[in-house]
Design brief:
The protein is of the alpha+beta class and 174 residues long. The chain is 25% helix and 29% strand. It has three helices and seven strands; from the N terminus they run H-E-H-E-E-H-E-E-E-E.
């Protein structure tokens, strides 16, 4: 019994070693991913168009100042999308996302100490969590069976009143 157990352990160990060696060499070649030493990386040349496509949203006709980015992380790819529109257009846009709850007031965090791994500053925008007159909600498309967004796991929504009947919408999705 002891001999069979030892043989099984050695065989499993050899198989695991072979699999690890194969996986290490499989990434070698021209299609190898770039190494990441400092954490998530921003995808060059990808922005609002890719974020809109991933989230499968239709931005309002009057949307302006559209900005977007894609960040590849260790487990998920995060998509950022922001635009300014009339308050009415922003509200209709958010309603189409079907958040689980109504937008609620966001208590601003201290901008000098608040940090995030997907900073809006990458797009030249302030962090919505640190701003005044911001409301927030989230949506889990699979949870509400939104077939339009079946590839999206979560969307965090921020809507900031920027005055003159306009609002800035921030979406962060993965």
């Amino acid at each position: 019994m002891k001999r069979t157990s030892s043989l099984a352990i050695r065989t499993a160990s050899a198989a695991l070693t072979a699999l690890l060696a194969l996986s290490a060499t499989a990434c070698g070649g021209s299609g190898a991913p770039k190494s990441r030493s400092g954490g998530p990386v921003w995808a060059e040349g990808q922005g609002a168009t890719e974020a809109v496509g991933f989230m499968r949203v239709q931005t309002p006709a009057g949307a302006a100042e559209m900005k977007g980015a894609v960040q590849h992380g260790f487990q998920d790819t995060t998509y950022l999308l922001s635009f300014a529109a009339s308050t009415g257009e922003a509200e209709a846009f958010v309603a189409d996302l079907r958040p689980e709850e109504a937008l609620r007031a966001n208590t601003p965090r201290d901008s000098t100490t608040y940090t995030t791994i997907t900073p809006w500053s990458h797009l030249g925008l302030p962090e919505p969590e640190t701003q005044q007159k911001v409301r927030t909600a989230s949506v889990c498309p699979p949870c509400i069976k939104d077939e339009r967004r079946s590839a999206v796991q979560s969307i965090t929504i921020f809507v900031q009143d920027i005055g003159d009947g306009r609002a800035r919408v921030y979406l962060k999705a993965f």
